[in-house]
Amino acid sequence: MKNCICFIGSQLSKQRFLLAMAGAAHGSRQCALTHRYYQQWNWRRTPRGPAGLYTQQLTRRHCQHFSKELLQQESVQRYLEKMIEEYRQVTQRLNNTALTESERRTMSRRQIELSPMATVFQQSQRAVKDLKDVQAIIESAEAGEDTQMLELAKEEQKGIRKLIEALQIKLLQSLVPSDKHDASDVIVEVAAGRTTGGDICQQFTREIFEMYQNFASYKQWAFEVLNYTPAEYGGLHHAAARIAGESVYRHFKYEGGMHRVQRIPEVGLSSRMQRIHTGTMMVIVLPQPDEVDVIIEPKDLRIDTFRSKGAGGQSVNTTDSAVRLVHIPTGITVECQQERSQLQNRETAMRMLRARIYQQLIEKETEQRQSARKLQVGTRSQSERIRTYNFTQDRVTDHRISYVTRDIKEFLSGGELLEELISELLKSAETEALLELVENSRN
Amino acid sequence: MPVQYVIEEWDFRELTLKMRPPVFIPRPETEELVGLVMEELRTRGPAQDSPASLRFLEVGCGSGAVSLSLLHHCPQCHAVAVDRSSEALDLTRENAERLGVLERLQIVQLDVLLDADSVLCQCGSVDFIVSNPPYVFAEDLPLLEPEILWYEDQRSLDGGEGGMDVIKQILCIGTRALKKNGKIFLEVDPRHPLMIQEWLRSQSDHGLEYRETHRDFTGRSRFCVLQKTAPEC
Fold it and tell me: What pTM, to 2 d.p., does this model score?
């Protein structure tokens, strides 16, 4: 017993020591109120990616919004100018009637793509001009010592400055190419990792699934359980759910990957030995395609259901409504026995099958696109962990952007903290995407 | 005892219906019958110029699964549900109330084998007829699982000598009750599609044409679609 206590004591002190070291090395600034600390973001890239921009070392504080510095950068400015120029050319050429049908189509599509950016750019130009006018008014008011005019002008100047900032952010956002699936619904699958004894993975899987359920209700999305396979002792072995709502995929796309947990379990099999256990679980996020995106021929499907001997129909009463769909060309198999109605099971299975086939298609596409982006969805290999939940130190770390947050209990309730993490991920992803776009256009 | 009777309910497509012995428990194949009709309504829907409501007749409603699914799916439809068993009709009425479609449902108790004319009086002219009639061959009846024979109403299974008794009667009713181009949707035994076509050829003046046979999810020929081509006879 005494040995146990000494052992635990040494473990805890070792952790505290490590924590202190980590804090010192990264120069953290612990904010007592919000339980978060930002790390200096050292952005060093491997030479494998596009040279030039990425090999520069950019140190910046991670801000809450797209930094104006991003817009100030030369390469971004040049890219912006290039886009504007292209828009002007395309508009000019479209007005010129001597074009073939296909050329016209491609040109008008390009114009539609570029027009939101062009509009925002024009608005910001106008705002800058307005600002100059107001400056002139202020100067003349100062010279003429007209205090009333001066005040009014200063008010307007503030308003215009704010407008310019908002427009700049909008401009940046319009430059970033949006994922074509951003607006679709998703199917989220969770699966417990393989354990070396004990059921820490299963308990953790259940907690994560509940976190996503709470998050869906927090964002007022519909959460529909497609499949729920519990493990013994109250854990969850694997489950799948469909989340429908606005821009669900945009929020969920960075949740896919391996999540790791470190805790001293209080309940379950592992709780007898009071030691830190490590477990993992997998989250897979599939965007749900529209019917037209994935066409499944009925002849490519094999449907396995309970099939009685003899004539079937009225002569048989069955409660076995489980359905298994096999897509023969790809070999993807989907099972569903969640509902009592066989038709409902079949529909659910079709939906999951469609999502999985679509996911395969997307993965093939992304493999071909060579990208050095860290946050590219799906490029992290299956065994790389994206996030660690450390219960003993009450800390959640996302490894892709080195973001740390405290208060695990609050985080697992799927509310604000999770939303903050997701928006941080989105921001750094958008920044990366933009810079990559800019870089590619240079070459 | 069948599970559906033990828990007194079961799901049919997206609905949950109450179940009670000896009323016939809906089979999974019947879900596809409803799907067929819905597909027909969908393709027909946009072509219709008048948004007037559709009326249909269901022969042998049992727990009301087919009629209620269609009423639930199509808010403009009206239905006439016919069954010879008063328990079945009570259960249909109960389920209709629970689903809130009772106003569009007319419930009639009579036996189509004995009383075809009353059916015509009650339902008038309908756009289509749908039915899952008793189609088990009389000779196959003793071979069924004991659970079915002990608890479910045999009258809802027994189709007579070739399993065709009620089916033939429905076709006769269809001749007179259907509007022009109205369709009949039937769930039958896999041997029946050919038997039905043969029987139609042997009869005259029925004005019906056999359109198609559909298979169920197990690959057996399960559903027959017929259409009335000649004007009222």
Answer: 0.62
